[in-house]
Write a structure and sequence with these properties.
Layout lengths: L2 H50 L23 E6 L3 E3 L9 H14 L5 E6 L2 E6 L1 H9 L4 E7 L3 H13 L7 H17 L5 H9 L3 H9 L9
Parallel strand pairs: 2-4, 3-5
Antiparallel strand pairs: 1-5, 3-4
Length: 225
């Protein structure tokens, strides 16, 4: 490594050190709150199911599908065979195995309460949102899972994938959020949305300054990410 390049790395490290520290501390605080809420949700599901004898949710057939979901008329919810679903490889989010286990526990008690979101790809379906629920269903031996079938363009599908994963109870590193928010911002601009940083902050329940801190992490050189 040349002296000039070494100096450049050092200057970058100093310039962004405080940003990384602040983003990491606030990130850990947010994750802790989300984790507590998720655990409370699982316990609540069990209690409600036992107390009120709530049956496991199911969608009996394609005839039970309906439109008008997610604000559009071209969405429908149906039970799809798990064998027809594929995860999308090109995405910034790792799988949280602990979350899969917690969801699997909930599914065994009350079933899949919230359908996953998929988009048709030939004779198969790509998962836009719900990889953890999908894997949890596989874990407990389910053969079908309720799905929202989105009929949309590629940009909107990608936006759904990013947006619905950043606002869920996941434990991601600050740099993962940084990449995700940056891509979400660009996708929202392509879709003609305005005040995109404010919208992302509101959607994720954090302030706008925190979103900017995440976005600035993308300017770190690769060795520091």
């Amino acid at each position: 490594m040349s002296d000039s390049y070494g100096s450049f790395v050092f200057e970058n490290a100093i310039a962004y050190r405080d940003e990384v520290k602040v983003a990491t501390i606030e990130h850990k605080t947010l994750v802790g709150r989300k984790r507590s809420l998720m655990k409370l949700s699982v316990r609540r599901d069990r209690t409600m199911a036992k107390k009120f004898d709530i049956p496991k949710q199911s969608f009996s057939s394609v005839a039970d599908a309906y439109n008008g979901l997610l604000g559009m008329d071209n969405n429908r919810v149906v039970n799809l065979p798990i064998s027809q679903l594929d995860e999308i490889d090109n995405q910034p989010f790792p799988i949280n195995d602990s979350k899969v286990d917690q969801i699997a526990d909930s599914i065994e008690n009350v079933g899949v309460i919230e359908p996953i979101i998929v988009v048709k790809n030939g004779d198969r379906y790509n998962i836009l949102s719900g990889r953890h629920r999908f894997r949890a269903c596989q874990k407990v031996g389910k053969t079908e899972i309720p799905c929202y079938i989105k009929e949309t363009d590629e940009t909107t599908a990608r936006y759904i994938l990013i947006a619905t994963n950043t606002d869920r109870n996941n434990e991601y590193s600050p740099i993962v959020y940084a990449h995700a928010y940056a891509e979400q911002l660009e996708l929202m601009k392509k879709l003609g949305k305005k005040a995109v940083v404010n919208a992302i902050a509101e959607q994720n329940g954090i302030n706008r300054k925190q979103i900017y801190r995440y976005l600035r992490l993308n300017y770190l050189i690769e060795e520091l990410q």
